[in-house]
Amino acid sequence: FRPDVGVWYLSSRATTGPGPMLMSYRERLCKAGFGPYKGLNVPSSGFVAILMLLPLCDRVTVYGFGVEGMANRKTDDAFGYHYYKGVGMRHVGDDVHCFDCEEKALQQMGAEGVIDFCTYDPDDTMNSWSCGCRHEDVEECRPPPRPAWLRDTDDCDPGYDDCEELKAQRMARARERERARTMGERLRPAARAVPSARGHRSERG
């Protein structure tokens, strides 16, 4: 139980509602000479959440797009599809989503001031960390300097790439429990019916 975390249940209308808008914008992009784009027109959960938050929040800041440049410059990490780690985390998304279309739509919304659309810009390092900053003094958002003892090859996110190994270990333990249970059933003597002292049948091992 997390009292600091609120959970909202979205109806199917809320999750499918952005689909027609996304499809319409995709058609406009194609007619303007952009594309073709991979994937279908099912909006991702992140895209749905952004549109849901717009009427609820004074300001919405979007992160997570445009990390390709970071992957070219960092050697100690992998940028997966999911931001979280553990069971259910995947490195790639589903083809039912058109992430390029969503990025173009969000990029345009950022250009029009509807949202703050923050991406990594190798030519503007300040914007890469200051975008979305809520402090009056943007320096309050500056990340601490990289420690001198930290090497490029150090694993800054231990466990990120170990999930498959952990799942394999859990499966091995589960198989061992199942094997022990099966062997126990085979060794257990079969119950047989014997007459009791009162003439009724009882079960004995």
Descriptive labels:
mainly alpha; disordered C terminus; 205 residues; two-stranded antiparallel ribbon
Major sheet details: 2 strands, parallel
In round numbers, the mean pLDDT is 75
Structural class of the secondary structure composition?
mainly alpha
Query: What is the gyration radius calculated from CA atoms?
Result: 27 Å
**Principal-axes shape call:** extended
Give the neighbour order of strands across the main sheet: 1-2
- Strand % is 5-15%
Helicity range: 25-40%
Number of strands: 4
Assembly context of the chains = single chain
What is the string of helix and strand elements? Answer: HHHEHHEHHEE
* Count of helical regions: 7
List unreliable stretches of 5+ residues. Answer: 191-197, 199-205
N-to-C span: 44 Å
InterPro entries: Glyco_trans_29, GT29-like_sf
GO molecular function: sialyltransferase activity
Keywords: Glycoprotein, Glycosyltransferase, Golgi apparatus, Membrane, Signal-anchor, Transferase, Transmembrane, Transmembrane helix
Region (Disordered): 174-205
